[in-house]
Design brief:
It contains 12 helices and 19 strands. It is α/β, with parallel strands linked by helices and about 475 residues long. Strands 4-3-19-18-17-16 form a 6-stranded antiparallel β-sheet, with helices on both faces. Strands 14-12-8-5-15 form a 5-stranded mixed β-sheet. The protein is elongated.
């Protein structure tokens, strides 16, 4: 915006001179030329620098309107104007290629650079995890660690009766043999093997009963009601407070319906591998553990668990965090209680256009806007825990095979999302000088989950983002303005 001169009072007339200038028109013309010289110079050099691209010519000149060239404005403001206009010019062709049921929002330098249907609520797929992450980091204590314990009565190295494995809702509880089988290996895992070692080191040599899994800490609803049958047990669930290996028992091709029994079976296997005899078959019992605590293991800190969820798009972790949110905020360890907290948090933050049906994004009933995703990312600093937990382009998680050989490889941080006819991406591109570009691109429509359709658009987006902040430096602008 242009600034007012700040001088609204009448200006006193100058005293009459004895002689007037013989050529008043010439004087006015010279004064005008002198006054406009800095502005003309600024326009010419700013336009030259702003439109210069490697091997091609851009079109930002159409955005260099009069307000940008007002020499009264601060040099840094002018630089920001030029940089964002250049970025907008690079992004316009992406809009032309988007399907009708799509949205895009790009912010840079604290400004909205491009917004197309950004308030349109669309199916987000796993970019919904950005909302889950934001609320988890806000509601759950920063020093949160989830504890898994072993309880029993030991006499001369023998457990009298059952040995109870008590779950504390650790979503990253795994055995070492399971990790190599995962598509995206668990980051910051809590090893059940370590707990078995601690039981052995405590002097236990035999269990006269069974290993019993106790999952009473959280609700035991295995799946969400509106999850389709095709994703139950494969993409998410069965859920519970005692989950090991996402419910898989190593060496058993069939995932048990009850994750607590599966965890007991896996722990039995690990104990036996260490020479500890177990008489009974693994089973479940809720809240009936007797005896004393024999050993325990603690999860990684909360921010690392949130990072694992974002990097690997871990659906089970997302849903377990929702139940922890419900327990912490309303003392109800249920999905519905947790989702209500997420709804309330978004409302409190002034983030609109979100319909939350789950924490993972597996539900097709979820809705979110591009504006909401960018605003969630904008809530924290450049190096915030949510942003640093996103997958790295061409390096980690769901982006490890994406953007390879492009300018954003190793730089762009993002959260992907995929469902049938849904492909989404939101994240951040850090920029030197404590600046960043934030973006969200949601594509809903037939065929848009196919690589041949979304990959070219993603790569075009990434290439465009790297052009920010192309502009003259503040010193250059200040010198030109003073000239």
């Amino acid at each position: 915006m242009t600034q007012a001169d700040g001088n609204d009072e009448p200006v006193p007339r100058a005293p009459k001179r004895a002689r007037r200038a013989r050529r008043p028109g010439v004087v006015v013309a010279i004064v005008g030329l002198i006054g406009s010289a800095p502005m003309a110079t600024l326009w010419f050099v700013g336009h030259s620098l702003a439109t210069r691209t490697e091997g091609r010519s851009a079109e930002p000149v159409s955005y260099l309107v009069t307000p940008v060239l007002n020499v009264r404005r601060a040099a840094s403001t002018l630089v920001g104007d030029i940089a964002t206009r250049n970025l907008r010019s690079e992004l316009t062709s992406i809009v032309d290629r988007m399907p009708s049921n799509a949205c895009i929002r790009v912010d840079a330098g604290g400004r909205v650079v491009l917004s197309k249907s950004a308030d349109k609520a669309l199916v987000p797929a796993s970019t919904m995890k950005i909302a889950t992450a934001a609320v988890s980091l806000d509601v759950l204590p920063a020093d949160t660690r989830f504890v898994t314990r072993v309880v029993g009565t030991v006499d001369n190295g023998i457990v009298d009766g059952d040995l109870t494995l008590v779950g504390g809702g650790d979503p990253l509880l795994v055995s070492r043999e399971y990790l190599p089988t995962e598509k995206y290996p668990t980051t910051d895992p809590t090893y059940l093997d370590d707990l078995a070692d601690k039981v052995k080191n405590a002097g236990v040599t035999a269990i006269s009963g069974s290993v019993v899994g106790d999952e009473s800490y959280l609700d035991d609803d295995r799946y969400l009601d509106d999850w389709s049958s095709g994703i139950r047990g494969t993409e998410g669930g069965p859920l519970g407070a005692l989950m090991v290996n996402d419910g898989v028992v190593v060496g058993n091709p069939i995932k048990p319906d009850n994750p607590a029994v599966a965890a007991a079976a896996e722990f039995t296997r690990l104990l036996q591998a260490r020479g500890i005899a177990v008489a009974g078959e693994p089973k479940e019992a809720k809240g009936t553990a007797t005896g004393t605590s024999i050993a325990e293991i603690r999860s990684s800190p909360l921010d690392r668990i949130v990072a694992e969820m974002l990097t690997n798009s871990d659906n089970n972790t997302a849903e377990i965090l929702v139940r922890h949110i419900g327990l912490t905020k309303s003392l109800q360890p249920t999905t519905q209680a947790g989702l209500a907290v997420i709804d309330q948090s978004l409302s409190t933050w002034g983030i609109d256009g979100v319909v939350v049906k789950d924490g993972s994004g597996l539900s097709r009933g979820n809705r979110i806007t591009c504006a909401a995703l960018v605003e969630l990312l904008e809530r924290e600093p450049v190096d915030g825990k949510l942003k640093s937990g996103l997958a790295v382009a061409a390096r980690t998680g769901t982006l490890r095979d994406v953007f390879e050989g492009t300018p954003v490889a190793g730089k762009l941080l993002g959260k992907t999302g995929t469902l049938l006819n849904v492909k989404t991406l939101a994240g951040v591109l850090p920029v030197d000088g404590n600046d960043e570009v934030l973006f969200a691109l949601l594509l809903n429509g037939a065929g848009w989950a196919d690589q041949g359709n979304y990959r070219p658009l993603w790569e075009q987006l990434g290439a465009a983002l790297t052009t920010y902040p192309r502009a003259p430096t503040p010193n250059q602008v200040a010198v030109l303005g003073a000239g």
